[in-house]
Amino acid sequence: MAVLLQSLRLIDSQRIHPPKNFIFTGSEILEDKGDSGLKIKEAIDCSAFFASKGWVDLRCMSGEPGEEYRESLDSLGDLLAASGFTKAVLMPNAKPAIQTKNEIQFVQSKAKQWLSDLVIQAAATKDCKGEDFTDILDLHHEGAFVFGDGTHPISNPDRLLKILQYLQKFDGLLFDQTYDPYLALFGQMHEGITSTRLGMKGIPNLSEEIAVHRNLEILKYAGGRLHLQTISSKGSVDKIRQAKKDGLKVTADVSLYQLLFSDEDMAAFDTNLKVMPPFRGKEDRKALIKGLKDGTIDAIVSNHQPQDFDSKFMEFDLAAFGMSGLQTFLPGMAKLASELTWPLLIAKITEGPSKVLGFDTSKMENLTIFDPEENWVFDQKSNKSLSANMPWFNTTLKGKVKFVINKGRFVKI
Fold first, then answer.
1. Residue 336 and residue 131: Cα distance in Å, rounded?
2. Nearest Cα to Cα of residue 114 among 413, 406, 412, 316
């Protein structure tokens, strides 16, 4: 039984297309030309909605196994669907880390029932500590092709070099949140005028830029594929832009909320704004916007890092880093749409991340349908996550996902 989507406006990387009718047949999505002969089960007026290929998130986290109270795999699956994502990369930072066949099989079994497809980022080093290697080849035989230490940078250059070499045996992909942990030691926010005024230890741009430079030089020497996650500074954007011109196989992403906040927003000591990398200055934000527009930055990510109440409701310098970023992703994009345009935003969460992962982007196998203007209240009742570490909690937001099509399923959100 087919579903008719009336007057739906598709968005791709080029433009917002005029309204057309589409049919979801139960197995594929087709333009309705009036001659399908299908029996329509339901007709939906989509004249107020936009749609695109299903969204892809390259960076999200669950607490399971080990810390299910922050986010279980079941709640993460529901949250991804409600947020419009049909594919997501799960970071390995659990307890234990996702670093053996057993953990991969456990996560895969949990994700079978999800509406969204899951890509597991397997730990590159044991317990994500950057020291001993995991059994990379065995993990690949279990289906893993993305490796990294998630929220922990691979700061040991010897380990980074050897991981890049190992991954070339099967064209694997290394993800790294690149910064020097010693230059960021004890830091709470971006180092600048605001941190000085607030009396907080700052994290300088240098901590990221020197690590980006080092990793790109190692990539040039070793070969392989490297994806730099959550870049935040102008210097990083400049270095990645040049590396791409030099022909290195490097890609990059930026957290959505890095485009929405700056270090000046930290004045109220809201621990929900304590993230890594920290919110930088306005010049860095301008460079990130330019990097998105010229293709230096390939994707925008949610960087969903749920934290329980106790880890955030404390003194700022003791609070955990991280922000919940999935359910507010569309409202965040809506705030940026006038500056970045919907086609560019959609490109950075569909074609961009799919190409990073090496997936085919030519077919429309799934669909995310959303209302960019609908207002809704983000509170305990509407929250799909087990955590609420987001500064927009208990506020009214604009932009809501309405329907998701994936795996032959049509789901109303």
1. 40
2. 406
Please name every residue paired with 44 in a beta bridge, in sequence order, or none if there are none: 5
Domain ranges of the chain: 2-50+367-412, 53-357
Place of tokens 């064209």: 171
Distance CA 232, CA 184 (A): 14
CA distance 246 to 75: 42
**What are the backbone dihedrals phi and psi of residue 403, each rounded to the nearest 5 degrees, phi first?**
-145, 150
Q: Tokens 């799934």 label which residue?
A: 366
Full DSSP string of 128-171: GSSSSB--HHHHHHTT--EEE-TTS----HHHHHHHHHHHTTTT
Tokens matching residue 106: 């456990």
Note whether 117 and 328 are within 8 A (CB): no
| Sequence-ordered alpha helix ranges (H) in 62-100 | 73-82
Longest dimension (CA), the chain: 69
Spatial contact of 98 and 122, defined as CB atoms under 8 Å apart: yes
Q: Which CATH number fits domain 2-50+367-412: 2.60.40.1930, 2.30.40.10, 2.60.40.420, 3.20.20.80?
A: 2.30.40.10
Which residue type does 213 have? H
Fold classified for 53-357: TIM Barrel (3.20.20)
Residue type, 59: R
The tokens 């906040």 sit on which residue?
261
Per-block mean pLDDT, blocks of 10 residues, the chain (413 long): 91 95 89 76 94 98 95 97 98 96 96 96 97 96 97 97 97 97 97 96 98 98 98 98 98 98 95 97 97 98 96 95 97 97 98 96 90 97 96 97 96 94
